[in-house]
Design goal:
Strand content: 15-25%
Radius of gyration: 19 Å
Protein name: Cephalosporin-C deacetylase
CATH superfamily: Alpha/Beta hydrolase fold, catalytic domain
Shape: globular
Structural class: alpha/beta
Number of strands: 9
Pfam family, one: AXE1
Distance between the termini: 34 Å
CATH topology: Rossmann fold
Strand order of the largest sheet: 1-2-3-5-4-6-7-8-9
Largest sheet: 9 strands, mixed
Length: 338
C-alpha cells in the first residue's frame, strides 16, 4: 500500500509532523498588546462606505467597500453576493477572504468562488500590497518604517508597535466586524478564509476572536498553507521569500536578532492558534518550500478548537489548489447545516 511518507521531502516525516508541537513564544503581554491595539482601532472607526460597482459579472451584486482599519485608516474591499435573492431578501453566511503575499483585492472576478457557492463574500485588500501578481491593490500603507529588506515582512520589525502586520491583522479583525453589519449578512455566521499570507491572517483573526479580543466568535476558520507561523524554524530552514526577507535583514543587522524574534512572537500563528476556538479546516503541502510543513503543523497542532487538516503529499505551495477550495466549500456547508 502506498504511504505518503515515501515522498521525498526536506522536512519531518508525516507521523512526526502530526506530533510536532514546539514551545509557544507568546510574550506575557501578548493579550494586552492586542487588546489595546484593537480597542484603539474600534475607537477611531468611521462609517463604512458601500458603492455599487457596475461591471460585466452576471448573477452577482458587487460593491466597492471602504472601511476603517488600523488607527481608523481607510481600507478597501469588495463585497460580493449572489444577485438573486437580493441582499434585502435574505440573510446569508459571509466569508471574509484574505489575500496571499504580494497581491491586492484586484478585480471582483478574481475572487467570486464563495459568492458562487451562495454566500456573501468580503475580500479585504492588503495594505501596501498588490504589485506582484493579480491586478493590483488600492490601499496604501503610509506608516513610517526604519531600515527594512525589500518586501513587507521586515517593515517596522524592531518594535511590535510599528511592525507591518500589526496594521494588517488589525485591518482583518475590523473587516470581520464590518462584515457583520453589511446588508444581507447573517452576523451570527461569519467565517474567515485565506491561503499563505491570507491563511496566516485568518489564524490571527481566529486567535483574537477566540481570546475574546474581538466582539463575536467566528463560525469557521479556513487556513490553507498558512504563512507567518513558527518564525524561528521557518527563517532557519527555507531560503525562499517571504521568510528569506528576515534572513537578508539579519545578515546586515547582525546585532538585532533577539529583538527581531521578540517582535515576531506577537505575530506568530502558533500563538494565535493556541487561543482560537472556532472550527478550523487547514491544508498543508509536504513539498512546500515557502511555508514548510512543520511550520503549518506547529500552528495546527496548537490550535485549540475543533480542527482537521488536508495533507497534499505531492504539492508545493499551491496546497491543493481548486480541489482544496471544493473540499472547504463542502466542509463549510456541512458545518452550517450541522
Amino acid at each position: 500500500m502506498w504511504q505518503s511518507d515515501s515522498v521525498p521531502r526536506f522536512d519531518l516525516p508525516l507521523e512526526e509532523l502530526r506530533e510536532y508541537r514546539p514551545a509557544l513564544t507568546a510574550p506575557a503581554d501578548f493579550d494586552g498588546f492586542w487588546a489595546t491595539t484593537l480597542d484603539e482601532a474600534a475607537a477611531r472607526a468611521t462609517p463604512t462606505v458601500l458603492t455599487r460597482a457596475d461591471g460585466p459579472l452576471a448573477g452577482f451584486e458587487v460593491s466597492d467597500v471602504t472601511f476603517s482599519g488600523f488607527a481608523g485608516q481607510p481600507v478597501k474591499a469588495w463585497f460580493i453576493t449572489p444577485a438573486s435573492p437580493s441582499r434585502d431578501e435574505v440573510q446569508r453566511p459571509c466569508v471574509v477572504q484574505f489575500i496571499g503575499y504580494g497581491g491586492g483585492r484586484g478585480l471582483p472576478v478574481e475572487n467570486i468562488a464563495w459568492a458562487a457557492a451562495g454566500h456573501a463574500l468580503l475580500v479585504m485588500d492588503t495594505r501596501g500590497q498588490g504589485s506582484v501578481w493579480g491586478t493590483g491593490g488600492d490601499t496604501p500603507d503610509d506608516a513610517p518604517s526604519g531600515p527594512a529588506a525589500p518586501g513587507f515582512v521586515t517593515r517596522g520589525i524592531d518594535d511590535p508597535s510599528t511592525y507591518y502586520y500589526r496594521r494588517v491583522f488589525t485591518d482583518a479583525v475590523r473587516a470581520v466586524a464590518v462584515a457583520r453589519e453589511l446588508p444581507g449578512v447573517d452576523a451570527a455566521r461569519v467565517a474567515v478564509q485565506g491561503g499563505s499570507q491570507g491563511g496566516g491572517i485568518a489564524l490571527a483573526v481566529a486567535g483574537l476572536s477566540g481570546a475574546g479580543l474581538a466582539a463575536h466568535p467566528l463560525t469557521a476558520v479556513m487556513a490553507d498553507v498558512p504563512f507567518l507561523s513558527h518564525f524561528e524554524r521557518a527563517v532557519g530552514m527555507t531560503s525562499t521569500d517571504p521568510y528569506n526577507e528576515v534572513v537578508r535583514y539579519l545578515s546586515v543587522h547582525r546585532t538585532r536578532t533577539e529583538r527581531v524574534f521578540e517582535t515576531l512572537a506577537y505575530f506568530d500563528g502558533m500563538n494565535f492558534a493556541a487561543r482560537a476556538t472556532a472550527p478550523a479546516y487547514f491544508s498543508v503541502a509536504l513539498l512546500d518550500p515557502i511555508c514548510p510543513p512543520s511550520t503549518v503543523f506547529a500552528s495546527y497542532n496548537h490550535y485549540s478548537g475543533p480542527k482537521q487538516i488536508e495533507v497534499y503529499p505531492f504539492d508545493e505551495h499551491v496546497g491543493g489548489g481548486p480541489l482544496q477550495w471544493w473540499r472547504q466549500a463542502e466542509w463549510f456547508a456541512g458545518l452550517l447545516a450541522g
